[in-house]
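FAQ: What does the model actually see?

It sees only this:
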Amino acid sequence: MNLERYRRQILVKEFGQRGQETLSKKNIVIIGGGGLGSNSANIFVRMGIGTIDIIDKDTIDITNLHRTSLFTQEDVGKSKALILEERLHAINPEAHIRGINQKITKENIESFVKNADVIVDGTDSVSLRHLINNVSLHYNIPWVYAGVYETVGMIMGVLPQKTPCFQCISQNIPESIPGEIPVLGSLPATIASIQCNETIKLLLGKPLAGLIIYDVWDQCFDVMNIKRNPDCPVCGKK
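And it is asked to produce this:
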């Protein structure tokens, strides 16, 4: 690892060379390569995460371009996962990058995440987030939820058996939104940055913030200290 590449990051007192060396040994799996997932991947590869898998079956659509930083007009119609693999490797050849052009299902998710240190949510599907939540708790793999709508984003890290899980908070999140999801172009990159910070804290064993809610239009930022639901059907005491 070329430490000079990360010299300014190593100077951060909460991080240091030990933190940098730790990141170089970590494996994250990003599920979804759109507005959130691609922006998160861009940050992770620059920060020095050692191994990054990006899983997405979708192709790049022209409507993706207003909220992503790694896709171009020429990429429209191509695989999100495979283009991200190419771009991320060009940014940091030291990182091990794998773009997986497959759809996540209940039957295959274990094979994709079983070696992950953290799972990163880059999807816009609530049902898929419940699937991530279930496999996270079953295999004791932390994950970081993020979602965006119009000008508001939410982020929460889930540490199995220690923090609330996604099911604990999901009564406040609609299962589906009819039509296309409205998203301000600046929002996904902002929320992805916060999601990356929470992921880095998980990888370094640092405390998580809680449920973070940020409205980029009104500049309203809130952190909610939500408790685990003892009656939660997924993570509650049996």
